[in-house]
From TrEMBL:
<keyword id="KW-0639">Primosome</keyword>
<comment type="function">
    <text>RNA polymerase that catalyzes the synthesis of short RNA molecules used as primers for DNA polymerase during DNA replication.</text>
</comment>
<keyword id="KW-0479">Metal-binding</keyword>
<keyword id="KW-0808">Transferase</keyword>
<keyword id="KW-0804">Transcription</keyword>
<protein>
    <recommendedName>
        <fullName>DNA primase</fullName>
        <ecNumber>2.7.7.101</ecNumber>
    </recommendedName>
</protein>
<keyword id="KW-0235">DNA replication</keyword>
<keyword id="KW-0460">Magnesium</keyword>
<dbReference type="InterPro" id="IPR050219">
    <property type="entry name" value="DnaG_primase"/>
</dbReference>
<dbReference type="InterPro" id="IPR006295">
    <property type="entry name" value="DNA_primase_DnaG"/>
</dbReference>
<keyword id="KW-0238">DNA-binding</keyword>
<dbReference type="GO" id="GO:1990077">
    <property type="term" value="C:primosome complex"/>
</dbReference>
<dbReference type="Pfam" id="PF13155">
    <property type="entry name" value="Toprim_2"/>
</dbReference>
<dbReference type="Pfam" id="PF08275">
    <property type="entry name" value="DNAG_N"/>
</dbReference>
<dbReference type="GO" id="GO:0003677">
    <property type="term" value="F:DNA binding"/>
</dbReference>
<keyword id="KW-0862">Zinc</keyword>
<dbReference type="InterPro" id="IPR030846">
    <property type="entry name" value="DnaG_bac"/>
</dbReference>
Length: 669
C-alpha cells in the first residue's frame, strides 16, 4: 500500500514525536527539546533528544534518527506499512483504499484467515475430547504447562481421514477454500480430498498481529513421518517471511536487547515457558534475506541456537552463507551450539532455564564460526595449500557488501592466518629442534627477550607469560591491543593515535608496530608472503590475548584456554553493544595518554628549582590543571561505564553472572 505524503504529514501533525517516543522513553523538557536515556543502548547520561518542532528524534549513542514511524520500526520491529496503519488508527486519519485488485486479494486473505481460525478452534477443542487423549499424554510428556497450551493455542488433529473437512463443511466452508488455506489435500487421481494433518499435535503459526495463518503438526507416534509437517505456501502463509512466535517476542527482544533463534516451534515454546520471552523459530527453513532483516529489527546481534551434533553444526554452516552478504555495521549474529546433541527443549527439561542461559552466555560470533568452518580441516602443509585457504577466505569476505565490515573481516582474518601459518611453521621447526636437541641452535628467549636481536625462537614448551612490570595501566595496554584484534574497525579508526602512544612494555610496542604494519604496509600482499617476517613476539602475545580452543571429538569447542582479553575486560563475555565497546576503547586510549602526560609533568617538575624559564613554568601549571581535570572526568566516566556493564550483564540473568566480577572496566594487569 502506497501512502501519499500528505497523509503521512497529517499523521505527524496530529501525533507529535514526543508523544510516540514518550510511551517508551521517560522524557524531560530541555529548552525547546526533550531529553531522555537512549532506548537503543544502556546509558546513565541522556544522549537521546526529541524535537517536536522539527519532527524528529536523534540518539547520539547509536546514531539512530527518525520520525514517529521510524521509532515504531526501530523499537517494535514493525514494517513501515504496519507503523503507518497503527498511527493512522490512533489519530483517526483515513488511509487510502487499495486498488480493486488489491482489495480482491485482501478479501481473499480475510476469507482464508477466517477458515484457518475455524480450524484452529477445531484443533483446540479436539485436544480436550476423547480423540485428543494421546495428544494430551504427549503434552504431559513434553511437560507443557496448561498456561502454555492455552497461550499458544495448542491443539490436536484427530487420526481420522477427514475429521476437519467434515467439521468445516458443516460450518458452510467449501472445499476450495480449505484447499487454498492448505488444510486439505486434493489428490490428482480424482479420489476424495482428505485432511492434511492427521493424528498430530497442532501448533498454530501466527502473524505479527497474532492471527493464525498456518499450522505446524508434530507427529506423536515414533513411526509417523515426517516428524514435523508445516502448512504449504498459501496466500496467507510464506515460510521464508515468517518467524514463529515473532509477535510475542517483539517487546521482550527490545527490552532485553537480544533475541534467541531456535530451529523448531516446540523448542521456541519450551524456551518461552522457561521465562525467556524473546525467542523465535525459523519453521525449519533456511535463513532468507527477509528473515535476516526481520531478526535484525528485533536485535542487532540475534543468538542463533543449534544442536551441538553434526546436523546442528551443518545447519549453522549453511546459515553462514545466507547471512554473510547482508552483514552491515553494527549488525551480525552470534551462534550457540548446545552440548551432547541436545535441543533447547531437552536441555531445559534436564537443567532448567539456568542450564540454557549458561550455554547462551557461551555464544560464538559469526566471524569465529566462519573461521572455524574454513580452517578446521584445511591442510596448510605446503605454500599452495596455504594460498588456497587464504583465497577461499578472501572470496567469502568479498561477499560482504558493507565496505566497512568487509575491511574489518579482512584484517581479522589476515591476523589469524598469520598466526595459523606461523604456528604451523613453528611446530615443524620445533620438531626439527627436538630431533637435533643439543646442537645449540635455539636459546630460551621468551617474548624475544634474551640473546640475539629479539627474533630468536623460544625453546619448545618454554613460552610462559611473564609478569607485567610498569604500573597499573600495563594490563590496560593488553586490553587495548586485544580489542584492536577483536574489533579491527576500532583499530582502523584509531591506528594513527595508537601508534603515537608510548606503551610501557617492549613486547607491547613490538605488537603495536607489527599490527600497524600488517594493516597498512603489507595490505596488498598475501599473508603467506610475509608472515614469516613478523616479529615472533607478536604471535606469542596474540596467543596470550586470545588463547587457544580445546575441542571434543565432535569438533565442539569445550574450553577456551588463556583468553586473557575476556578475563581482563569481562563485560565482553556478555556480547555488549558495539557502541559500548567503542566508548570503552576510546576511554582506555585516553587513560594511556594521560599516563604520558603525567610522565611529561614529572620530567618538567624535576626541572623546577634548577633552570626553568617562565614559559616552562606556565606549561607545568597548565599541564597540572589539565591532568587534574581529566582525572576527575575519567572517574565520572568509569562509574558510568561500570553501571552500564552491570545492565548489560543483567540481560543474561543470574545464571550467566556466576563467577563474574562486579566491575567490567579493567584497571590493573
Amino acid at each position: 500500500m502506497k501512502v501519499p505524503p500528505h497523509i503521512l504529514d497529517e499523521i505527524r501533525a496530529r501525533l507529535p514525536v514526543s508523544e510516540v517516543v514518550g510511551r517508551r522513553v521517560k522524557l524531560r523538557r530541555q529548552g525547546r527539546e526533550f531529553a531522555g536515556l537512549s532506548p537503543f543502548n544502556p546509558e546513565k547520561t541522556p544522549s537521546f533528544f526529541v524535537n517536536d518542532q522539527k519532527g524528529f528524534y536523534h540518539c547520539f549513542s547509536s546514531g539512530k534518527h527518525g520520525d514517529q514511524f521510524r521509532f515504531l520500526m526501530e523499537t517494535e520491529g514493525l514494517t513501515f506499512p504496519e507503523a503507518v496503519e497503527r498511527l493512522a488508527a490512533e489519530t483517526g486519519v483515513t488511509l487510502p483504499r487499495p486498488d480493486a485488485r488489491e482489495e480482491a486479494r485482501e478479501r481473499q486473505r480475510a476469507s482464508l484467515a477466517d477458515v484457518v481460525e475455524m480450524a484452529a478452534r477445531f484443533y483446540e477443542d479436539t485436544l480436550k475430547m476423547s480423540a485428543g487423549a494421546a495428544a494430551r499424554a504427549y503434552v504431559e510428556r513434553r511437560r507443557l504447562e496448561p498456561r502454555t497450551v492455552k497461550e499458544f493455542r495448542i491443539g490436536c488433529a484427530p487420526a481420522e481421514r477427514d475429521g476437519l473437512k467434515r467439521h468445516l463443511l458443516g460450518k458452510g466452508v467449501d472445499e476450495a477454500a480449505m484447499i487454498d488455506a492448505g488444510l486439505i489435500i486434493q489428490p490428482e487421481d480424482g479420489r476424495p480430498s482428505y485432511d492434511r494433518f492427521r493424528n498430530r499435535l497442532m501448533i498454530p503459526i501466527q502473524d505479527d498481529k497474532g492471527r493464525v495463518i498456518a499450522f505446524g503438526g508434530r507427529a506423536m507416534a515414533p513411526d509417523d513421518q515426517p516428524k514435523y509437517l508445516n502448512s504449504p505456501e498459501t496466500e496467507l502463509f510464506h515460510k521464508g517471511l515468517g518467524l514463529f512466535n515473532g509477535h510475542r517476542a517483539k517487546a521482550a527482544a527490545y527490552d532485553q536487547g537480544t533475541v534467541v533463534v531456535v530451529e523448531g516451534y516446540l523448542d521456541a515454546i519450551a524456551v518461552w515457558q522457561a521465562g525467556m520471552a524473546g525467542v523465535v523459530a525459523t519453521l525449519g527453513t533456511a535463513f532468507t534475506e527477509e528473515q535476516i532483516q526481520r531478526m535484525w529489527r528485533f536485535a542487532a546481534e540475534p543468538l542463533v541456537c543449534f544442536d551441538g551434533d553434526k546436523a546442528g553444526i551443518k545447519a549453522a554452516h549453511r546459515s553462514l552463507d545466507r547471512i554473510l552478504p547482508h552483514l552491515k555495521s553494527g549488525f551480525s549474529f552470534n551462534f550457540v551450539f548446545l552440548p551432547d546433541g541436545k535441543d533447547p527443549d531437552e536441555l531445559i527439561q534436564l537443567g532448567g532455564r539456568a542450564a540454557f542461559e549458561r550455554e547462551i552466555a557461551r555464544a560464538v560470533p559469526l566471524a569465529d564460526v566462519l573461521w572455524d568452518r574454513e580452517t578446521r580441516e584445511a591442510p596448510i602443509d605446503t605454500p599452495e595449500r596455504k594460498a588456497a585457504l587464504e583465497k577461499r577466505l578472501d572470496d567469502l569476505v568479498r561477499e560482504i557488501r558493507d565496505g566497512r565490515v568487509q575491511r574489518a573481516y579482512q584484517l581479522r582474518y589476515r591476523l589469524r592466518l598469520s598466526n595459523l601459518f606461523w604456528t604451523s611453521e613453528r611446530r615443524g621447526r620445533d620438531a626439527a629442534f627436538t630431533a637435533g636437541r643439543g646442537n645449540g641452535a635455539f636459546g630460551q628467549t621468551a617474548f624475544g627477550q634474551g640473546k640475539g636481536n629479539g627474533r630468536d625462537r623460544p625453546e619448545v614448551g618454554s613460552m610462559q607469560v611473564p609478569p607485567m612490570p610498569g604500573g597499573d595501566l600495563v594490563g590496560l595496554e593488553r586490553v587495548v591491543l586485544g580489542l584492536c584484534v577483536e574489533f579491527p574497525d576500532l583499530f582502523e579508526a584509531a591506528a594513527e593515535r595508537i601508534v603515537g602512544l608510548d606503551f610501557a612494555l617492549d613486547q607491547h610496542e613490538a605488537f603495536k608496530r607489527e599490527l600497524y604494519r600488517m594493516a597498512t604496509e603489507v595490505a596488498d600482499l598475501s599473508v603467506s608472503s610475509f608472515y614469516e617476517g613478523i616479529d615472533p613476539r607478536f604471535f606469542f602475545l596474540l596467543k596470550e590475548l586470545h588463547g587457544e580452543e580445546v575441542v571434543d571429538a565432535s569438533g565442539r569447542v569445550i574450553e577456551q584456554r588463556g583468553d586473557r582479553l575476556r578475563e581482563r575486560f569481562q563485560v565482553l563475555k556478555f556480547h555488549p553493544p558495539e557502541t559500548y565497546v567503542e566508548t570503552c576503547f576510546w576511554h582506555f586510549l585516553d587513560r594511556i595518554e594521560l599516563r604520558q602526560m603525567e610522565r611529561e609533568l614529572k620530567a618538567d617538575g624535576e626541572m623546577v628549582g634548577t633552570e626553568i624559564d617562565q614559559r616552562t613554568w606556565e606549561r607545568v601549571l597548565e599541564l597540572t590543571k589539565d591532568i587534574a581535570r581529566r582525572k576527575e572526568e575519567f572517574a565520572r566516566r568509569e562509574q558510568e561505564l561500570a553501571e552500564e556493564a552491570k545492565e548489560i550483564r543483567a540481560v543474561h540473568g543470574p545464571a550467566a553472572t556466576g563467577g563474574i566480577a562486579v566491575g567490567g572496566i579493567p584497571t590493573k594487569g
